[in-house]
Every structure is written in C-alpha cells, then in structure tokens.
Amino acid sequence: MASLAQDLLALVKSTCHWLVIIATPPYTHALDSDPAIDLILAVGAFGQTATVVFVGNGLNYLSADVTVPEGHSDTRKLLKTLPLFDIEYIYALTDSNDSRLYEIDVAITAIDPQHAGHLVSLADNVVTF
Questions:
Q1: To bridge 60 with a disulfide, which of 15, 25, 55, 94 should be the other Cys (CB 3.0-4.6 Å)?
Q2: pLDDT score of 3 more than 70
C-alpha cells in the first residue's frame, strides 16, 4: 500500500508545466475567443501549472490603448482571471519601466532574455502564439 507521501510525489511528477509565450498581438485572428488565453485557462482548469510570457507584439495584450474589435472578448478582462486558475507566474520580456506592465490589474514581472531562456528550460511543454 502506497503512503501519502508517495501518492503526493506521484501527483507532483504527473503534473505538467506549460510555458505559453505570446508574441503576436491580440485580435489578429477571426475567432470569437483568443486561442492563447483559452489554452492558458484550460491548463489551469485541469490542475496543471503554467507560466505566461508576453514578448514583442504580444505585449499589446497588456495595453489599454488597444481597441477590442466587435464580437471579441476583451483579453485584458480574461487576463485578470488568471490567478483564479492558479496561473500566478506572468512575465513580460521588456524593461521594468514599460507602462503596459501596470495597465491591467494583474501582477506582471519584467524579465530579460536570459530569464526567459531559463523558463523555457524548466517547462515540460512550450507553446508559442
């Protein structure tokens, strides 16, 4: 009979860690919802861990200046729900003075390319949008 510690160890080992890199601007597809945000929410909903990194044009997900096209969900509102799905590690490959880091009510940490590379090496799955 397995002990509780062995059961917990097996559970931890069975949990996948996802790294989702968002490098394209929001609303560039013809879908009602956003595939990157949908994946992140699904990962969290199924008890897996995820780290999100916004890079390049993907930083526009954080911008208050982006207009939400008719028929689309506001991605900034969806990003605010990430902590509810246990998605707590949200980064932006940018300077800490970038005002977009503070335009939505979610903690986003600025990182450098070296830190981003380290995140890639730790992930079980890396998905780029």
A1: 25
A2: no
Overall pTM > 0.90: no
Element (H, E) at 11: helix 4-14
Neighbours of 114 (CB within 10 A): 7
Q: Is 22 exposed, middle or buried (0-12, 13-18, 19+ CB in 10 A)?
A: buried
Task: Domain count for the chain, please give it.
Answer: 1
pLDDT, tens digit, for every residue of 97-119? Answer: 888 778 788 888 999 999 999 99
The verdict on residue 17 lying in a domain is no
Q: Is 112 within the bounds of a domain?
A: yes
91: three-class secondary structure by DSSP: strand
Kindly state whether residue 109 falls inside one of the protein's structural domains: yes
